[in-house]
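Why NADH-quinone oxidoreductase subunit L? Reviewers of the renewal asked for a concrete example.
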Amino acid sequence: MTTTTLAVLVPLLPFLGAAAGLLLGRTAPGFVRPLAVLPTLAAAVLAAVVAARQGGGRAIDAATQLTPTGSVPIDLALHLDGFAVLVAVLVGLVATCVQVYSTAYLKDDVRYPSYAALVSLFTSAMLLVVYSGDLMVLLVGWEVMGICSYFLVGHYWETPEARAASLKAFLVTKLGDVPFLIGLFALAADTGTFRITGILAAVNNGGLDHPTLIALLLLAGVAGKSAQFPLHTWLPDAMAGPTPVSALIHAATMVAAGIYFVARLLPVFAASGAALVVLAVMAAVTMIGSGLAALAQDDIKRVLAYSTIGQLGYMSGALAVGDRGAAVFHLISHGAFKAVLFLAAGVVIHAAGTNSLAAMSRMGDLAKRIPDAYWTMTVALLALAAIPPFAGFFSKEAVLVAAEHTAFGDRDVAPAAAGWTILVAGLAAAVLTAAYATRLWLLAFRGRGPEVPDHGKQPIAMTSVLWVLAVPTIAFGLAAGTLTDWFDGHSLTPSLTTAVLSTGVGLVGGLVTYGTWRHTTALADRPPVGAVAAHPDAEPALVEVEAITSHTAAYGTIAGAPDPSDPGRLLLGPLHRHAVTGFHLDALYTVLFVRPVGAAARLVRFLDREVVDTYVRGAGGIARGLGTAVRRAQTGNVQTYLGALLAGTLVLAIAAVVFANVYAGA
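Here is what the prediction returned.
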């Protein structure tokens, strides 16, 4: 087969698997798991073959016109460059691991067939975004991911947390999609095409008339999809969904789509220095704010969610300084270690019977119960904290090096202000990242208290994928030097200055957190905190549902816990109560947007029911009254009808005589 044919099959196979899984889910349930895993695995293998054939060389383009529009045509187009083929391999690998993991995690879930089909459709949509060479086709995948996330985040729809989180994720991302869609049409109007190659050619030739306006409109959609400030608030709440879904969303699909989109169209954004500065500020606020919030969270998955927001901020920062190679490099390395973190978190929650770090810190021997999750999560946290030689170190250094070059004027793609903003914020975020990664590891695996209940050996389907994903977590950074052709041909090697500086501040953050933990642990008593609700024999998905419900019941919130031995509480001081709520952005948005929109909706409902419907009912009442009056004349008495006829005739005759005399006199 040609490379183009193989590339077409990559998004098509998961789509066909999703359709077949939905059709056979009830009639032939034995086929559901093979239809979930095998098409996704085949797509991952084909994506690797496409990447090998593309080889980081010249981009492969293929297109056929979808339909004549009379103005800007829409094409079914593929655009396979080094970025696209590598990201597709990541998506295929993570999606396959998630599907395998889910076969055990949701083993007895009655909604597993629809869940597996939605995961396959989600994967197909992301692969369509990655390979698409036309913005309208890309938009189809973009929106399909949005509706899939709604259903998957709300999988545990019996819990109020999941219902609220799914609706919030859908509405917040749609809020960004409205200006995003306007920006796409404005871009096509300026360049005369939806084809990515045509748009980039027009930009290079100075054919973009409104670069700042278009870039800012597109950034609104990117902020929503990739959970960047100020539209990031949906992502922490989305942790109410199943853990494998969290891994898929955070590592390889939805939140990566916005970053990938900007990387694809970076010349469009680079045409406006103002847009790059806005992107830099957005990234800086996202990095620092999410780091502070992560340090205050008690739910282990919410810590990882804010971590994702911060790491996406690094990727946005790389794009803000005009280096899409560094952005995609960090996207891929982050996808590997973040998938490990979430999938390992699912094992931890199952073993501990709770998602509360405060409760875990009062348990003994958790690490011994789950050695696979313990070791792989330790490696992934080291990668997250950018400790060499793990992948996160090399990719984060690539971002900081790009910012350094822009700040000192060695590169002129972006304003120096953007470079300084990202460099300073990136170093500050490195301290926070190391701090919350250390805190998570200490509270989860170095707890003191009663021994954790023995849940038995974790399913092989859940533990094996952790080691599969640990391989790129360890090795991808070391191998990046051989992949320069896939990253625009420029080196991603760390510089000595930023490497020493960022690693040093990271170590300081980790060591300070460790010292604080030793201090708070020694001073605090060890009463049980929270609830561990799940039965040791329960399946992982049921454990997670009970953990979410019991956390809210025990603490009054899914975010924090009143734990005096939490080192994050001492480190943040008075800032802790603000950080644990995400700096009250949800409350602010409720006052500024939710309540006014709700009031406007109630006003519209009142006007519709009490004003518009009153006129409608009045018109109907008049018709009914006239009908009643006319109906009374229908007595059925022939004499009455004849009398009325004669009277009417007499009236007409008199009227005729009167009018005749009047006209005769005139």
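The mean pLDDT is 89. This is the kind of structural detail the renewal will allow us to pursue systematically.
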